[in-house]
Amino acid sequence: MISLADLAEVEGIIRSVNEEAVLPRFRSLSDSDVAMKGPMDPVTVADREAEEFLRERLTAFLPGSVVVGEEAVSEDPLVLRALTGDAPVWVVDPIDGTRNFVAGSGRFSTLVALSVGGVLQASWSYAPVLNRIGTALAGQGAWVDGAPARVAPPTDPPALPLTTSHPVWWPSGYGRGFDALNAAGLDVRYFDACGIEYLDLAVGKRSAMVLTWEHCWDHAAGLLLVAEAGGHVAALDGAPVRLHGGNALPFVAASDPATATLVRQVITGSIAG
Hints:
alpha+beta; 8 helices; 25% strand
């Protein structure tokens, strides 16, 4: 459905939307440009306008497709039903890392993935201020900043950092899992923008990520990027991660199956104990 030429064309759409709707507002937001959807969950005029631009241009690029975007779902959760429908679905996060964007940090990205029948076909992860771009095409590979992407080779124990969200975002009672990972000798660190972390995992700068929530717009692009870079992703119970939800949490994206299994076993053991 998507060719390498199409991959480049959609990248151009994403870059142009950032130039028009996102970057002009970076470090230029007024108080009235920012609202709160919930605790620690801001949304800006840039998020909303970028998502609308992406909706218009992506559905025009692929007639008959639909968009599941973060801001649309926040207004109407029934939008998520499209993930299990027949039409091709663009999964969109106009600004992943909105809190960073509001604070004036360049650690944010625009995430786009194309899914058909719940199966990821292509993805784009663009961090405009950091000038980083990750793309992936199912069955053909992953690229970051124009070069083929490859996860780190496996080591025992994992030699590179494992990253996760702050424990405040972990499911109730699962904070023990964070302590257990540290006790197992793993180098565990917090991250602030998961789209950028997926980029780092795909190019061999991380051993694994522990993801404690399953909003598809946060993960779809990175899941395909990591998979096509040779990585492994599994829910806590070892099952494949489903875009439409219902996964056993947290799920793990890792450089190799052994690392993913180790992390899952440590977390599961801590919960069972």
